[in-house]
Design goal:
Number of helices: 6
Order of helices and strands: HEHEHEHEEHH
CATH class of the largest domain: Alpha Beta
Number of domains: 2
Strand order of the largest sheet: 2-3-1-4-5
Strand content: 5-15%
Shape: elongated
């Protein structure tokens, strides 16, 4: 790869990294090419990215981005998995992939702009997905309105029941 290609790759990566606050650094040593391709495919299905890049290029690409906090973890074979919006979804996917692939090891992560240790990634992966959380929020917002409607309809309903019992 010549200097211009490297510079182009750094600029592309920097653009990706500017648009995300969620990234997972993974030690992929021992991972077979077939398995790495499968990991990429699965991450792409959820609109995420999985990039294997030299540490020197990655360190240039993270400059002036949120991922700059992870500079100290760019040692040894490092892959970067990131999603612009869904940190929990990609954490779940990576944890599931890791169960079948013991060669993948979390180094660190950046979730919503905060550095997270490998142990905390497991806790993040156990959180419900974004869709589940939104549906629970919708239920919680809707429940008081349903109760209010029921209370307001009760006098009319009770009057109707009493009138129905009066003989004609």
């Amino acid at each position: 790869m010549n200097r211009e290609e490297k510079q182009h790759n750094v600029e592309v990566l920097n653009g990706y990294f500017r648009s995300t606050n969620n990234a997972f650094l993974i030690n992929y040593s021992g991972l077979k090419v077939v398995d790495a391709t499968e990991v990429r495919r699965k991450i792409r299905e959820i609109d995420g990215h999985f990039v294997v890049v030299k540490n020197t290029l990655a360190l240039r690409a993270v400059k002036e981005t949120a991922l700059e906090q992870l500079e100290s973890f760019f040692q040894g074979p490092t892959a970067i998995a990131f999603h612009p919006k869904d940190a929990v979804g990609i954490a779940k996917l990576l944890t599931d992939i890791r169960k079948g692939n013991p060669h993948l090891e979390f180094k660190a992560a950046l979730v919503e702009g905060k550095v997270v240790s490998p142990g905390e990634i497991q806790a993040i992966a156990s959180l419900p997905s974004r869709e589940v959380m939104l549906s629970k929020l919708a239920f919680l917002l809707k429940a008081p309105l349903q109760k209010l409607t029921s209370v307001l309809n009760a006098p009319l309903r009770d009057l109707g029941l009493v009138l129905k019992q009066v003989p004609k």
